[in-house]
């Protein structure tokens, strides 16, 4: 007896007239995504060029693309390649596998313990600075402060040195390039030229750090990730100075930009929901597991609303059946954690800031494709545990002592590589 599998369906496509209206109105890309998701569901498509792009928000399809069939849905290029070069975020194929294996051990278990004291020292440095602001009434920008902390933390972890003012000043070029990426020319050479001065500053810092690690050895806080890369160069010819530079810059970008943005959003959300801070502090005494769990819940709920990677591009390397839909080889797909995290079919009252979802059993969906602020599967962010740890440690220092009183707050978000607040966050500190 011959059996036939059911015919696969084509992914439903958003009405081109609606796409045209969106284009004419100059809306954000996320607005187009939201229309497709609302009208067509968790697997939808829209056409901005000759071929449709498939939008993925359904948890089962998310898991299929990112975790179950990563060999069929591959990264084709990275938007930040002119900044991070061939670093692990942009690498593909066997090169990516080799680079990830080298770094992975540094971010789990024993490897993470190496950086505990560096994270704690960066948090204490920030806490002391905030105590000074509170004492004098000095104004600060919360976003700048979060970037300063996150950059200090990753710099200590990379080099074994605390962040010095000169390095901090030069590395301001990193967020400048990240912010410029969406508006750069499509032509690679023209894009490179547009940010040439900033890239030169970043390259100079990287070159100096590599030379110092090679010539002087470990920093005062011990060897860092940069020393791991230099050791690899002794036995692996692919680790040229250029690749070491690319990995160093990749870790700088991934290790501070996303954490700083998350912490900035968290403080803005606490400004609108002050009871969430009080509930976290009341969960248990300082240093208790209950307090730590409650603080981590603040971070997780912030990441739900503003995930570190709001879209994850993939390309179908071969034909596939995706939850009953036909996907042809060469199709571009966009997994969108931002919309998955705000889907009312998955999350109760999804627009509300409610950290209790992450401490009360049964309050959040259990499917792994429902919550993925750092991605899932083999290309999930290496620094997940690092980012959660540094965020929690900083908040354990700052939340009991200070409450920022904002002079003004951004009115909207910018959807770039990360979702960041559109504007400054000036404040003074109470407490």
Average pLDDT, rounded to a whole number, is 93
Count of individual helical segments: 18
What's the CATH architecture? Orthogonal Bundle
Question: What coarse outline follows from CA principal-axis ratios?
Answer: globular
Low-confidence stretches: 1-5
Number of strands: 13
Which structural class best describes the helix and strand composition?
A: alpha+beta
Look at the structure and name the CATH superfamily.
Cytochrome P450
| Radius of gyration, CA atoms, in whole angstroms | 22 Å
- At the fold tier of CATH, the topology name is Cytochrome p450
Quickly name the level 1 CATH class.
Answer: Mainly Alpha
Proportion of residues in helical segments: 40-55%
- Report the major sheet: 5 strands, mixed
Q: What's the N-to-C terminus distance?
A: 78 Å
Tell me the domain tally: 1
């Amino acid at each position: 007896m011959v059996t036939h599998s059911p015919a696969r369906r084509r992914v439903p496509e958003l009405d081109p007239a609606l796409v045209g209206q969106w284009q004419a109105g100059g809306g954000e890309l996320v607005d187009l995504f939201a229309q497709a998701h609302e009208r067509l569901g968790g697997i939808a498509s829209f056409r901005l060029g000759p071929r449709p792009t498939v939008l993925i928000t359904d948890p089962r399809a998310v898991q299929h693309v990112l975790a179950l069939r990563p060999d069929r849905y591959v990264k084709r290029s990275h938007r930040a390649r002119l900044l991070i070069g061939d670093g692990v975020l942009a690498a593909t194929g066997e090169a990516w596998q080799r680079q990830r294996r080298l770094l992975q051990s540094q971010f789990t278990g024993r490897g993470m313990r190496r950086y505990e004291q560096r994270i704690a020292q960066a948090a204490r440095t920030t806490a002391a600075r905030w105590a000074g602001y509170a004492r004098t009434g000095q104004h600060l920008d919360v976003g700048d402060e979060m970037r300063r902390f996150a950059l200090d933390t990753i710099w200590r972890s990379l080099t074994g040195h605390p962040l010095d003012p000169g390095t901090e000043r030069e590395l301001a070029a990193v967020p400048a390039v990240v912010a410029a990426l969406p508006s750069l020319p499509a032509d690679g050479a023209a894009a490179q030229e547009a940010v040439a001065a900033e890239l030169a500053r970043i390259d100079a810092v990287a070159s100096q750090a590599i030379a110092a690690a090679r010539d002087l050895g470990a920093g005062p806080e011990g060897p860092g990730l940069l020393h791991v890369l230099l050791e690899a160069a002794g036995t692996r010819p692919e680790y040229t100075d250029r690749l070491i530079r690319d990995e160093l810059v990749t870790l700088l970008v991934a290790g501070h930009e996303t954490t700083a943005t998350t912490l900035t959003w968290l403080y803005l959300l606490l400004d609108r929901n002050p009871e969430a801070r009080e509930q976290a502090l009341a969960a248990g005494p300082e240093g208790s597991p209950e307090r730590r769990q409650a603080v981590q819940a603040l971070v997780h709920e912030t990441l739900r609303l503003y995930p570190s990677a709001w879209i994850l591009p993939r390309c179908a390397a071969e034909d596939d059946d995706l939850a009953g839909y036909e996907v042809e080889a060469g199709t571009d797909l966009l997994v969108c954690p931002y919309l998955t995290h705000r889907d009312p079919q998955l999350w109760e009252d999804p627009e509300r800031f409610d950290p209790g979802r992450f401490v009360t059993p049964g309050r959040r969906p259990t499917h792994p494709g429902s919550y993925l602020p750092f991605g899932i599967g083999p290309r999930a962010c290496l620094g997940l545990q690092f980012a959660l740890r540094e965020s929690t440690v900083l908040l354990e220092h700052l939340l009991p002592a200070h409450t920022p009183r904002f002079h003004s707050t951004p009115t909207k978000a910018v959807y770039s590589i990360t979702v960041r607040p559109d504007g400054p966050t000036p404040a003074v500190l109470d407490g």
